[in-house]
Amino acid sequence: MRKNKVVFVTLGCSKNLIDSELVMRQFVANGYSVVHNPKRADGCDIAVINTCGFIQSAKEESIETILAFGKSKQRGQIRQLFVMGCLSERYRNELQNLIPEVDKFYGKFNYRQLFADLGKPFHAELAQERLLSTPAHYAYVKIAEGCNRTCSYCSIPLITGKYRSRPLEETVNEVRSLTARGVKEFQLVAQDLTWYGRDLYRKATLAELLARLSDINGVEWLRLHYAYPGQFPMDILPVIRERENICKYLDIALQHSSDKMLKKMRRGITKEETLDLLGEIRTSVPGIHLRTTMLVGHPGETEEDFADLMRFVREMRFERLGAFIYSVEEKTYSAIHYRDEIEAETKNHRMDALMSLQESIAMEINEDKIGQTLKVIIDRKEQDFYIGRTEYDSPEVDPEVLVGGNVKLRAGQFYNVKITGYRSFDLTGDVL
Ligand code: SF4
After folding, report:
1. Fold assignment, 370-431
2. What is the pTM of this model?
3. Which CATH class name applies to 2-126?
4. What is residue 1's predicted lDDT score, i.e. its pLDDT?
5. What integer pLDDT is reported at residue 42 of this predicted model?
6. Which of 55, 92, 329, 424 has the least C-beta neighbours within 10 A?
7. What is the mean pLDDT of the chain?
């Protein structure tokens, strides 16, 4: 067992990853060596698991991970085991009784207490500093915490609380200091990016934030994630269009298309309003790539509602689409007011049908890219290919570009790549 060695495991989303990076920085400031998401856990002093509690499958993964580390501790391979994050925020007391191997469960926001419990100082002067776990050329940046929306199926507001915008200058300073460390590409994240500023500045402030971040020297790519369609801040569209270093990319979760389901899901928007918004986004920002997320199998979804969703996806041709299957999340509006009456088989069938439709659309979109020259950032090398991404590809969630040919490329560098074909969702190409 290596003294002062910390193994840190992050589950869930990029917002959780940022929290992990903040906590890992504090461990380093206290003289610990930190390993993030190692394949094996053995031989460490302390293990910290940052959990996800969003939906059933994520909760199961978190509990399995905790139990696995619990076994490592029983085998004497770990001295102390701590758990934090969304699952722990929601079920701290139950978990403490169920899994006594864990020394202590913390919430999502009280990780300072962990250092107090270790008898170590929390370095307040480093509170905004992170030990980056992503490749050196890109990072996630959180611009707010919490959510004020009331989506019927979602437990996130129960975990993260009301919306809290991060002061604009704080985000600008963080991005400035990250560019000084060589980071070029930034994924902007929050539970709801588009509500930014309405609490703190009493007005939609995302457009101003984007312009300020885009003005920072060294920012090559800014990408927007987790936009919400309702009360969409239209003033961000010209900012995205006019600034070269803001990716022509928008991740905007729509969840469904049928008016009946949008109402049942308490999404606060109609199909017609959604169509108008998507039309306006595509007109205002030519060539923009839209990523969306859909939810299938929510209580009340009939075959007709699902057919409506399939027609909508076929017509809208989203460049990127992911989907979830509805699961009952206790204390949510849906769990309290609706019966989860749709069979698992039907839910899985709808999920498969939706994703195979999307695959065919994605292949057609890839076909249209053959012959184009695209700016690609290289992330890594894998066997005979360099693996990169265009401005339309966010790390971890979107397709990649396989760059071949007898060339020597550097990770974190941009290259112009001629697209020659595609392999399933990924593009292939040669450096010019
Ligand atoms: S916008 Fe809706 S789905 Fe997203 S975190 Fe908020 S409540 Fe959940």
Report:
1. OB fold (Dihydrolipoamide Acetyltransferase, E2P) (2.40.50)
2. 0.95
3. alpha beta
4. 57
5. 67
6. 424
7. 96
Q: What is the pLDDT of residue 44?
A: 84
Instruction: Supply the residue whose CA is at minimum distance from atom 8 of ligand 1.
Output: 154
Q: Which atom of ligand 1 is nearest to the CA of 192?
A: 1
Q: Output the six-digit token pair for 202.
A: 């009493």
Does residue 17 have a pLDDT over 70?
Answer: yes
What contacts 399, CB < 8 A, 6 or more positions away? 320, 362, 393, 425, 426, 427
What spacing in Å lies between the alpha carbon of 24 and ligand 1's midpoint?
Answer: 27
Domain boundaries along the sequence of the chain: 2-126, 138-366, 370-431
Rounded to whole angstroms, how far apart are CA atoms 20 and 16? 6
Mean pLDDT value across residues 332-341: 97
Tokens representing 96? Answer: 């403490």
What is the bridge-based pairing of β-strands 78-85 and 144-145? unpaired
Model pLDDT, residue 38 = 85
Q: Is the CB of 154 under 6 A from ligand 1?
A: yes
Spell out the CATH class of 138-366: alpha beta
210 and 247 in contact (C-beta within 8 Å)? no
pLDDT bucket at 405, cuts 50 / 70 / 90:
confident
